[in-house]
Amino acid sequence: MIDTSALIQRWQEGDERAAEMIYNQSYDSAYLLAYGLLGNPADAEEAAQDALTYALTRIHRYNPRRAGFNTWLHTITVSRCRDRQRRKRLSGFSLTPWLQRGGDAPDPALPPEQRALQSETCDEIWAAVQSLKPKLREAVLLRYWAGHTYQDMADILDCPMRTAQT
After folding, report:
1. pTM of the model
2. Which of residues 127 and 89 earns the better pLDDT score?
3. Which of 158, 132, 163 is nearest to 145 (CA)?
4. Which of 78, 92, 100, 135 has the most CB atoms within 10 Å of its CB?
């Protein structure tokens, strides 16, 4: 994998191949975040593509001194997901289809009883995440699914770091 900052530099200098490489390197991260927020593969794909297109066409607005590229992209992705939710007036989402397809599937090396217990625990956790208000859901997914620091979360959610920590 090529360093993202080098690719950004190349893209800013007009290398279209660099833009394609940024897109390919960043798509999975944007898609997973969008899927976690929207719960629908088609909506997540559109949101991720829209976020990446926006980021790449406005790469001149990216400031590496303010945030890492992934943080900036996730800020855009969260915004695109919020827009989609407002348009669709979604009050919640279900991760059950994702779990049924094997997302966070229990370790097959575990005995069947432990796999069943682990699967049940995952279902309970995702049910709890689904019941959260949208802002809290975003915070939980950014921290525990996307692995962002509290400072990154504060930047993405446009809130004080102490708020992100709580």
Report:
1. 0.63
2. 127
3. 132
4. 78
Asked if residues 40 and 62 have their Cβ atoms less than 8 Å apart, the reply is: no
CA-CA distances (angstroms) from residue 41 to 10, 33, 81, 94, 113? Answer: 31, 11, 12, 11, 31
Lowest mean pLDDT of 93-102, 115-124, 155-164, name the range.
Answer: 93-102
Extract the tokens encoding 127. Answer: 């049910």
Supply the pLDDT for residue 136.
84
Look up residue 65 and give its amino acid. Answer: R
Distances, alpha carbon 106 to alpha carbons 94, 102, 110, in Å: 19, 8, 8
Q: What is the pLDDT of residue 90?
A: 40
Give CA separation, 160 vs 2, 17, 112, 113, 133, in Å: 33, 37, 44, 43, 18
